[in-house]
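Students often ask why we bother predicting the structure of a whole assembly rather than each chain alone. The short answer is interfaces. A chain on its own may look different once its partners are present, and contacts between molecules only exist in the joint model. In this exercise we take two input lines together and write out one structure for the complete complex. Read the inputs first and try to guess which parts will touch.
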Amino acid sequence: MDLTEIFDKKLLVVSGKGGVGKTTVSLLLALLASQRGKKTLLVELNNTQRTGIFFGLKKVPYKEKEVQKNLFLSNIQAPEAFEEYILEQIHSKTIYSLVFENKYVRNFLDATPGLSELLQIGKVWSLAERDLDKEKNPKYDLVILDAPATGHGLALLNVAQVVVNAVKIGPLYNQASRIVKLLQDPSKTQLLITTLAEEMPVNEALEMLKQAKNKLKMSCGPVLLNGIFPRFLSNDEWKITEKELNENASAEELNKVALFYQQRVLLQQHYKEKLVEELKGHPCWQLPFLFEEATTLKGINFLAHYLTDL
Amino acid sequence: MNLLSLIEEKKLIICCGSGGVGKTTTAAALGLKAALLGKKVAVLTVDPARRLANSLGLSSLGNEEKEIDLSSFKTSAKNSGKFFAAMLDTKRTFDKLIERYAPSEEAKNNILNNVLYQHLSSMIAGSQEYMAMERVYEMIQKEKYDLLILDTPPTAHALDFLDAPQKMSSAVGDSILKWFLKPGIFVGKNSLKLIEKGAQKIFGIFGKVLGMEFLQDLSAMLISTAGLLEGFKERAEEVSRLLKDENTAFILVAAPQSFSLNEAFMFYEKMKDFKLPFSGLILNRIHPRLKKKEWQSLSGFTHKKKLSEMFSAYEALALQEAVQIEWISKKIKGDFLLLPHMNSDIHDLESLKDLGDLLI
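Now the answer. The structure tokens for the assembled complex follow.
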């Protein structure tokens, strides 16, 4: 396992099926990178407001905020990104308000398909890449994007490509091309697909990996297999214990829970093997399930010790 | 929550919630249950990840409803229930909409062959929410089904789904779209001819930011779709009424974890704002707490230390969930249905039926 290689990128995009722990993985990577001295920015989108609570922050603002040494958070929403983008081009708040803050323009923009995704990924591009041109030192060493779940995640990563194909020329084309260039540059950007050892998350992870290669043409880092239950009892130990539980008449509830736990471990084992087999050598890292402190920094730091290579 | 009366009485049930909580599976299980009770049911999933097909044990699902064979379940021939499933195909739905509303064959071809249209319509981002509502409306209009169950995208985007009709209607009726629809506003390569002064200014800025060529293409596309837009607006308003209809029910599905419940609560608030008919919350994948304390003193077991560690891990999880459930039950006024976490993956009709029985 080599975290150094991953942290040398400019942009890490974390995606996967809903509920698999994308935010947890994003946080873990952001903590580790910042602890290694990388100036790290963790970005969430669509006002999900998930990362702030880990640092006692009620609301993550649009403008990046430092929450601990080397670690910054930002919540990117389309309206703010829009205003910032336009102001950079027309340099006049008065004209902006006049033109874009009226109902007729607003209603039109709100209904334009893909605009919100384009603005958000555009802002991510600007955070990860652009300051390189403006200043001698880049603002952040690493940007980590806690991206939406598979389907919408793919749409977000694909929107700039759609614009490039549809528009062909002009400022919009130039802007979109720059985004595509960053996303498709394997030395700068990596997609990290997160999954659980369950049937549907594994299927979606494999499907997304295929789409990333064929459609998005993005480089994929290790697949992160999250939420693995520790195995307390080996097969032989379980056999003895199961028998003892069955013989103990008052242990009916315990029997049920123990059986449930053991079954879960076996089910996870099954899908883990399936995933590793289908990955055909593509790297896969494993993280344990958090039984407590799942929404605290303590919990996330605990995970860091158990990040293992499969 | 009385799901039985919902499937008996309602015509449209909309399942919402964050990702990975079993929303699609719940929608499918409810649909199957209703079909086995004799209803003609269709389940539509709008999530771009192909999950419903998985739950139903089908390799693929398309935009058109596919009937699922229930013969293995039916004990009596009298049962006339039928079960259909479909997965939203945004582009196909959009194309069909244009085919239906285009004023002429020529107009239809103009639109479908417009380069900008081809790219925009194939882009799932954004338009997915519009197309979902279009598809729901189309399926309801057919009057082929007693009940339609809709599985929405994860919460953040399901909120867009609620906004979609309103947005569409405002964009057509109350926006600068109408300026784009004036033929001949572009004179030469880079100049505009508009009567309204404000419009001239706005287009000048747009041109600067987006490029004049793009605006010309956009205008050409919008002019060719002009005949359709009024139709879109009307339809959007009808869908908006449908969502508020007394025959419609919204169900929230959530897992007992803070992210999922926070999102469920946000959605609940939004539903109240929109005056939508909220029916209840299904709390799925719960680990019930251990009632007895005996797991702490496991004398007589050979591997009592390891066993105790296992119970202690489980109980920590169950306790964490109980705190979350307590929190949400104070926040949301309505019916709750609590379902335990199940170990078997639901990926065939048989296990889907078992889940349906558990729901009702």
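Check your guess against this: Chain A is about 55% helix and 15% strand.
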